[in-house]
Structures
1.
Amino acid sequence: MDGEKRKEVLRAWHAGVVDLLGYKFTPNEEMVDFLLEQEVKLEQQHGSPFCPCQCISGNREEDMKIVCPCIPFHRKHFDAMKQCWCGLFVHKDVTDPSKLRQIPASEIPDE
Ligand code: SF4
């Protein structure tokens, strides 16, 4: 499957999964396109669509927590920011993601 097709498959699959978690794609379509493209490249290199914004450690158990969408593993943190770490997904009620800010996980109690 070529990169463009794979990107569309990931887009459709992600949309269904994150919908159940109360999230949606960011309205910033350029960003969605760019991040999905990076995920396709990571999948081609490493076998899974890893997060474009988090480092692959080489520890399989840990790395499985950063396969997109990683929301279930970082729920408290992302819910506090109303977006995932990359900003690919935002809470469903977010209309302007530029108003959101990133909060380090260290600032989230018990994260
Ligand atoms: S931070 Fe966002 S883009 Fe990165 S893996 Fe998690 S859900 Fe996907």
2.
Amino acid sequence: MSSLIEHPHPKERRIVFENAGKSDYTPDIENYLAHGGYVEARKAFTMTPEAIVNEVKASNLRGRGGAAFPTGVKWGFIRRDDGKPHYLCVNGDESEPGTFKDRYILHRDPHQLLEGMIITCFALNIHLAYIYVRCEYTHAKEIMEKAIQEARDRGFLGKNIFGTGFDLDVYFHEGAGAYICGEETSLLESLEGKRPYPRIKPPYFPAVLGLYMAPTIVNNVETICHVKHILRLGSAEYAAMGTPGDGGTRVLCVSGDVMKPGPYELAVGSVTLGELIFDICGGLRPGRSLKAVIPGGSSSKVLRANEIFKIKAKADDGTIIDKEVPLLDMVMDATSVAAAGSMIGSAGVIVMDDSRNMLWALNNLNQFYAHESCGQCTPCREGVLWMSKLSTRMIAEGTQESDSATLHNIADHIAGRTVCAFGEAASWPTQSFIDKFPEEFGVQIAHQ
Ligand SMILES: Cc1cc2nc3c(=O)[nH]c(=O)nc-3n(C[C@H](O)[C@H](O)[C@H](O)COP(=O)(O)O)c2cc1C
């Protein structure tokens, strides 16, 4: 049974997962209404759109899709009265390895997402919204389309919703299953029926030139679900759950070598990495020790278990000093993970114990990125395939003295030289695996 359905750990703070975590909860509209569903959507229509945007700004909600961009600030880029059509595209591509939170929402609590979308669309004067989901989530289409129909039948979607005079249509769009379609501008190209090549930013910031070249908000599934709870709790209470500048709760998806992998919703910044692994996730397998952690989905930089990083801290006399922090004391929020040299990203925490071979693990990632490069930019198209071929050969035939330098060099020439951040996503694993575990990339005998 999934850790989500079991009793929550005392440190968990379930808001977005409140319904989804109940074993007897079914994703139909009657059940959602019986659990407080659509209360905040109705409330939104008693507020001014500006007041809703201000609440989201004050909540310090940051996007849960990977970039951790402040949601209220993003919404503030939309000018309601510019005379243009506006769109909302909910990003449910969830393609980052190690990330599996949006699937639970889509499958187990689809109306929560629809309610968040209604509030968002009213706040931003949007009358047409899409939910973009990868085709591998086979049940999501069936469940979401049923939920959309149920909401339409009740008058919560379509013309004159809730009798307010506001019109909103929502469509589910199934992607063909490509990692790059999670990148927001590729997602828009895909929605427009084109090959999903990322667009160049600037000028194609979606909030300015998005879907059909109109202002568009792209937000992650989890991000949109938080909006309901900001209106329910009020921005002050919501913000207070998290850290300054990073409010509320967020779902950490823990996978790999822990006894209880799964999605855990926690107040932002409320646990350290050590508490997450050894307390909440039940620790490692018997007899094993921690070797490495990838904290924010496979494209975030790997961290070595015994490393110590420095943060700026206030000393007793008020001066700012460098404080040394062991990795297991790293707080699981965007700022602290960045201070440790990686990123919280999509919060896919991949735990590796001492049974793991880092060259093998890197090769696994390299093969994924080589398969997923869209091919638009030469450094990425050629480079990730080259990295994959080289790490595969290192495993099959043994590592030559110059291999790790060559591998690192290829990664160095991809990152920062591509239209989208896939270049960094594909390069950071190689760079960080070699930097953090040089002894595993030296001369070796073949592993097979
Ligand atoms: C290569 C790549 C893949 C991405 N995949 C996803 C994804 O699967 N889901 C997602 O929500 N965001 C993904 N993102 C981030 C989106 O571009 C975008 O920042 C996000 O959807 C914005 O929503 P948020 O502000 O709510 O986080 C990806 C970014 C890159 C560069």
